[in-house]
Amino acid sequence: MQNPSFCLRMQSLDNSSEEIYWNGVHFFPPASDDALRCLKEGDFVYENGVVWDSEEGVEVRFHYNGLLLLSLTPIELDEAGRMAPLSITLNLMRLSKNEFINNLQAITGSLGRSFPPGFLESAANKVTGLMGKGYFGLLIRFFFVKYFGRF
Amino acid sequence: MWHIVFGVVGAVAIGAIKYFRSDEIKLVASTDAYKPTKNIGAIALWGVPNSGKSTFIKRLLGKSPDEQKIQTSFTKKYPNLEFESDGITYSIESIYDMPGVETRKSEWLEHVNKARNSIYLINLEKFFDEKDSYSRTVKQHLKELKEALDKNKPKNLIVVGTHLDKTKFSSSNEPNNLIQQSIQFELIREIFHSVWFYSVNLLDDNSCIDLIKSIVGDIDAKS
To answer: First and final CA of chain B: distance in angstroms?
Structure first.
């Protein structure tokens, strides 16, 4: 089943300029409307969102409209030896914690990328802490992080 | 009554002193900081992943390349980027560091339409590897670039070959000429009969200084 509230995007490791799009269950072509929406939503949060949490290999950005951008850096490097992060865009208002955690756990099996032990659990905790807060809860957090640097 | 008059006169006097002093300071400061800046317009920068776009921008900013590199996932915009070359300060109206993936191609071509200059980066190591499909991708990009440039009034196009250190031309004194005489370069000449071409090792300080000097020299000469 396709879930429009979750989308993962990553570049190929051979630097061939191809990208892989995945919604937690299916892969979809980069030229599709779903891929375009995924790209645009990710760009929007990257430009207009605030960094909620960041540590080595993981960064969480969100916007008060509910969109969240999670960047995860797997162990695998590209053919030039560069780190190759995955970008996950999700909607905090629509996606349930269980759906999110299931999708995150499926990354290693479906995409062939691996992470250090405990990495995904730690990343999941950073995101689930923002889930279920509602529009007003996100707005307050967004405001404090944007203007005071922390919540 | 006299209290009010003295108060108003005093306030006006203090205000006037502050105004003239601050103006004086501004004048001195602006004279000290004054440097002629040449605006070279916007630059549309592009190339297949790992062609050196991020490192090129870092070099313009006067920074050294990162030890551990990372794929670029999102477009980073640099408005009014200033850099120095030969003691002159140049200003680029805008330059974007975009991921070189196919889904960003339309964004790049949009920037080509708006920008006065285009710089296309080619990873020479891959370009001269005949087994690779890299050349086909470059050819396709250059064709689309030509179409975009032909629609607009004349603009500057510079092709830069990066990763020179990983090619057989690295030890040559004139790598640019040798590369342009190579069979592989015909692929570029088929599309652009004449083009400004430079090769560079972006990890080497002197090579980068020469590249930037050549680029601004060409743009200056044409403007």
So the answer is: 67
